[in-house]
Amino acid sequence: MKKMFLLTIIAIAGFSCAKKVSQENTVVKEPQEKKLVGGDSDEHGCKGSAGYTW
Question: pLDDT tens for residues 2-11?
Answer without folding.
Answer: 888 888 888 8
